[in-house]
Each structure stands twice: as C-alpha cells, then as structure tokens.
Write a structure and sequence with these properties.
single chain; 448 residues; alpha+beta; three-stranded antiparallel beta sheet; membrane; NAD
Length: 448
C-alpha cells in the first residue's frame, strides 16, 4: 500500500482512504476492487473461480451479496457483503423527537416492527423513569408474540421457496395475512405501525380486536400441523436441511449469534426468561431447544416457538383488564384516545373538541408536545429484548433535550450474518442457500 502527499491511499489495503478538507478529515470506504479479489485466488487449480451470489437474488433476500470462492461445487470461502439497503435510520433519529423515533426504528427489521418499537420505547421509558400501565404491557406482549409468529411464518415460507417446497411459501404467507389483518384492525397499518409509543401504546384494542386474536389462536395449530405434514416427514426436505449449515453452540457464542440459531444448538438462552421485560415473568411458556445445530434444527425450533407464542397470546388475552394504555403524565403522553379513521389515523372527536374549542391551554400543550416533543433526562441506557432473530438491543443516549443524542441498535441479523462462512465453507454451493435461509436474515435490520 502507498500513500500520496495528500493522504490518499492506494493498493489492496486502501479500503478507507482519507483526505483533509475544510470540514475536517473525510474517509472514503470501499469494499475492495473486484479485479484484485479475483487475482488473489490461488491459481493452482483451474477449477477455482469466484462467483457473486446476489445482491439481486431472491435467495440472498434481495440485497445481500455473497462472494463465493468455488472449487467445482465445493465452497472454499464465502465473504458476506452488506450495506446495499442502508437507510441511515440511526442517524436520522438524531433529527427527530423521541416519539418520532418510533417511526424510524419500526422500519429497521421490517418483518418484526413491533419488536423494534418496543425495544426503543423501553429504552426511552428507562431514561424517563416511567412505568407503563398494566394493560399497555399486556397489549405489547400480545402484539409482539403475534409479530413473532408472522416473522417465523415468513422464515418458513421463504426457506421453503428457496429449497423448492413452493407450497410452503403459499401457506406461510396465507397465514401471515391473518396476523396482518389483526394489526390493521388494531392500529390501521399492516407493517411499520409505530404503534408502541414511549409510555404505552398509540391506542387501545378495537371492539373486535380480542375476538379476532382468539379466532387466530384457535386456527393456527391446524396450520402448523399442515406444515409438519408437508415438510417434517418429507425425505427431500430432510436431505436438504439435516446436517446442513452446522454451527455448534461454541461457534454461536464466539460469533455472538443469538435467537433460534443459538437455541437450535442446545442453549436455552431466551431474554424473555433470562432477563424478563414487559411482565414476561408472569407467563407460562417453554423455551424450545434442539441439539442438531443445523438447518433442520432451526426449522424445528421455529415451529415450536410458534406453538409457545400461541400459548403466551392466550394467557395475555386472559390477563387483559380495563385500564389506560398510556401513562397519565400529560407532559409525556401523546394523546392515546385515538379513533382509527378511513385513512388509518385520527384523533377522537372529544379530544379535538377539547383542544380546538374548550381550552387554549390544552391546544398550546398539544401543539408543543407534538412539534417540540418532551425532554428526556440526560443519560444513557441499554435495553434488550428477544426478537424473532435473537437479541435486539437499543443503546440510547440523551443530552437532556427533546431529541436523541444517539441511538444505536444491536441488530441480530447483522450479528448472525457473520456466521455464514462458518456454516457454509467446505459444503456445497446449494447448501449456502439452505444455511443462509436458516439464519432468517432481514437486511433492513442489518443495514439500518
């Protein structure tokens, strides 16, 4: 590597060239040169070649690039390359109020928006030193477990598609639609809802909400039985998943891998049990584990987690008692007496009447709360929850203002993806697909 007079670096190691400007030092980060990468391949074997798998490829979830070094059909090395879906969510939040932050984090792992919102709101509430009402906590648990099921259904559906079981794709998305219908009834949106807010939830369950959820809980076990009849005893499915993508518990711990991948290696680590939040310690459920440590084990664990989530949802419905869904402190609480209109949003008529014709003070307070936001005491916290892909953590820093000073997400997809070389190298190219799919990565969370 060489360095010119102005500080610019050249050569194979020049992945972070730098230069001084009037605004300070600027770094130019690149992913390396393709020609240099190809030239670095051992020329001894004529069978050795470099292949791009993705990023425009359904089996890499649209925007993941895997640079594979192949010798015939055998994978000698895999280099995951991320960043194609980068949205700057964390930086954008520094320019929005604490409440507006929920509309950003919900778009990270877009298959598990409720978890993003809950983890973030728990961090804000910890900084504020407030506790949400009991009913809001129960609603959060119910919504999270519904979201866990819908996320796992996508994992099963897309893995089935990638391995040729196209019927699983159809059934998985069919049943996920039932959950999205519930989300739409509850908050007006099917994804990226910003439903969980600091201090509680945006609005209470609708009149038919509980019955819709009970109907789904009654329906879903039959769907799971159908999945097992389709896949579990299928010889082709077994051949494509058993012994494929092996990653034992020591490998998971070394790489920071969590969630179903870790539990499928035999370690029953689930933050709902080990570090409970939102009242999870009051629910009776098991943590599914498997000792296979392969793609098959991850499939089995996710199926069992859906069954356990159904148990938690049923208990949550029984725990629902009348009460507020937002903290009483009007200096923090956004209006939560919302009535969902035809456009999916809106305030109750009583609230609009109060702020528009009855109380100038209430109008001023509403305007300041919505436009400026509330102040959060200076400090920093880390909160973590058990998302569908593993530990989802939020490190939030406040300087005492109305906007976050810094928010950083410990996103499980990003961490888990680094295990692809460990579970794919030495296997066949086709097994890269099976192993990668069994990790269930969501690139919106990885590239946030």
């Amino acid at each position: 590597m060489t360095t010119t007079d102005n500080g610019t670096q050249h050569g194979s190691d020049a992945y972070a060239a730098e230069r001084d400007t009037t605004e300070g030092r600027v770094y130019t980060v690149t992913g390396g040169d393709w020609d240099e990468l190809v030239a670095s391949v051992d020329p001894v074997s004529e069978e050795r070649l470099i292949v791009n798998l993705g990023p425009q490829h359904p089996s890499t979830h649209g925007v993941l690039r895997l640079v594979c070094e192949l010798e015939g059909e055998t994978v000698r090395s895999v280099r995951p390359i991320v960043g194609y879906l980068h949205t700057g969510i964390e930086k954008n939040m520094e320019y929005r109020t604490w409440v507006q932050g929920t509309t950003f984090v919900t778009r990270a792992d877009y298959l598990a928006p409720i978890f993003n919102e809950t983890a973030y709101c728990l961090a804000v509430e910890k900084l504020l030193g407030v506790e949400v009402p009991k009913r809001a906590d129960v609603i959060r648990v119910i919504m999270m477990e519904l979201n866990r099921i819908s996320s796992h259904l996508v994992a099963l559906a897309t893995t089935g598609m990638e391995l040729g079981a196209l019927s699983m794709m159809i059934y998985g998305f069919r049943d996920r639609e039932k959950i999205l219908d519930i989300f739409e009834a509850v908050c007006g949106l099917r994804m990226n809802m910003a439903y969980i807010r600091p201090g509680g939830v945006a609005q209470d369950l609708p009149a038919n909400g509980v019955q819709m959820i009970r109907d789904f809980v009654e329906y879903m076990p039959k769907g799971l039985d159908d999945y097992e009849g389709l896949l579990t005893g299928n010889a082709i499915w077994q051949e494509r998943t058993q012994g494929v993508g092996y990653l034992d518990v020591s490998g998971c711990l070394a790489l920071g891998v969590t969630g179903p991948v870790l539990r499928s290696a035999g370690l029953a680590w689930d933050l709902r049990k080990t570090m409970p939040y939102c009242g999870y310690e009051e629910y009776d459920f098991e943590v599914p584990v498997h000792n296979g440590a392969d793609a098959w084990a991850r499939y089995v664990v996710r199926l069992e987690e859906i069954r356990e989530s159904l148990k938690i949802i049923s208990q949550g419905l029984d725990k629902l008692e009348p009460g507020p869904v937002m903290v009483e402190d009007k200096k923090i609480a956004w209006p939560a007496q919302l009535a969902v209109g035809g456009d999916g949003s809106g305030n109750s008529l009583n609230h609009i009447r109060h702020i528009m014709s009855q109380s100038m003070e209430a109008l001023i307070h509403h305007f300041k709360l919505v436009t400026e936001g509330f102040r959060v005491p200076a400090g920093q916290v880390y909160t973590a929850i058990e998302a569908p892909r593993g530990e989802l953590g939020i490190h939030a820093v406040s300087d005492g203002g109305t906007r976050p000073f810094r928010v950083h997400m410990r996103e499980p997809s990003f961490v888990n993806l680094q295990s692809i070389p460990a579970l794919a190298e030495g296997g066949l190219l086709a097994d890269v697909i099976a192993g990668g799919a069994s990790l269930d990565p969501v690139m919106g969370g990885c590239d946030r």
